[in-house]
């Protein structure tokens, strides 16, 4: 006389009771063959993984720069608690932002766009603050940096930084600055921060020269 194996008894129990106490009844993953984007993670999990601890901004003008960019918030200054739509991203003059801004009138009420180098991050943001900027985005001076997000630390000078700041990859900064210079524009218009968790992944427009 033979008896059903364990797998058979398990199947009978599931049919009768719907589940077995203490066992998992569902598995929240998607087979790659069923995933049109061919991601191992779900769309939501992917957005969470790339966005954890980071912020994002959209360029709305000029048209050729209409992409979503990823930035790393500074460990000093205020939080990015306010959303700015259509705010100007204005390259600092001089680009390093270590001294008084020659274009302070353009920077005032906008976001200062500064290049890394020659002085501390805190010094740069304070100069932007003194010029009337409502925030500062600092991009790497290494134009080919397309993956290393610098953590902008306090310089321990105990100066008061009263605006938010964030770091942008050098490759992204180069393309933005170069396009503005080439077209004679004094600023780009951006929305910051943007919540990518509410945007379908196929609608996220990443810069073609970089991968998050």
Describe this structure as you would to a colleague:
By secondary structure, the protein is an alpha/beta fold. The protein has helices spanning 6-17, 43-51, 104-107, 121-130, 170-183, and strands spanning 55-61, 68-73, 84-91, 111-115, 135-139, 165-168, 188-192. The protein has a single domain (54-203), classed as 3-Layer(bba) Sandwich (Glucose Oxidase, domain 1), CATH 3.50.30.30. It has a seven-stranded mixed β-barrel with strand order 1-2-6-5-4-3-7. Strand 4, helix 4 (121-130) and strand 5 form a beta-alpha-beta unit. The protein is globular, with a radius of gyration of 24 Å.
Brief descriptors of the model:
Glucose Oxidase, domain 1, single chain, 212 residues, globular, disordered N terminus, 7-stranded mixed barrel, alpha/beta
State the secondary-structure class.
alpha/beta
Q: And the CATH topology?
A: Glucose Oxidase, domain 1
Number of helices: 5
Strand count, sense and barrel status of the largest sheet are: 7 strands, mixed, barrel
Average pLDDT score: 81
What is the spatial order of strands in the main beta sheet?
A: 1-2-6-5-4-3-7
Catalogue the unreliable spans. Answer: 1-39
What is the chain-wise order of helices and strands? HHEEEHEHEEHE
CATH class: Alpha Beta
Instruction: Provide the domain count.
Output: 1
CATH architecture: 3-Layer(bba) Sandwich
* Number of E strands: 7
Percent of residues in helical segments? 10-25%
| Estimated share of beta-strand residues | 15-25%
What is the radius of gyration? 24 Å
Tell me the overall shape.
Answer: globular
- Our measurement of the CA-to-CA distance between the termini, rounded to an integer number of angstroms, reads 61 Å
């Amino acid at each position: 006389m033979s008896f059903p194996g364990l797998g058979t008894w398990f199947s009978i129990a599931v049919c009768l009771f719907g589940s077995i106490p203490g066992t998992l009844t569902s598995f929240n993953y998607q087979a790659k063959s069923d995933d049109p984007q061919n991601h191992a993670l779900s769309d939501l999990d992917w957005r969470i993984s790339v966005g954890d601890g980071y912020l994002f901004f959209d360029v709305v003008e000029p048209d050729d720069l209409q992409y979503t960019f990823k930035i790393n918030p500074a460990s000093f200054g205020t939080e990015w608690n306010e959303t700015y739509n259509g705010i100007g991203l204005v390259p600092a003059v001089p680009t390093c932002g270590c001294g008084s801004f020659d274009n302070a009138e353009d920077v005032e009420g906008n976001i200062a766009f500064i290049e890394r180098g020659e002085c501390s991050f805190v010094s740069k943001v304070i100069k932007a603050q003194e010029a009337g900027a409502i925030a500062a985005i600092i991009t790497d001076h290494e134009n080919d940096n397309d993956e290393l997000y610098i953590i902008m630390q306090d310089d321990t000078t105990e100066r008061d930084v009263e605006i938010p700041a964030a770091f942008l990859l050098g490759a992204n900064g180069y393309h933005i600055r170069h396009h503005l210079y080439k077209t004679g524009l004094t600023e780009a218009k951006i929305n910051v921060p943007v919540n990518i968790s509410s945007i379908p992944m196929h609608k996220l427009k990443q810069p073609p020269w970089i991968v998050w």
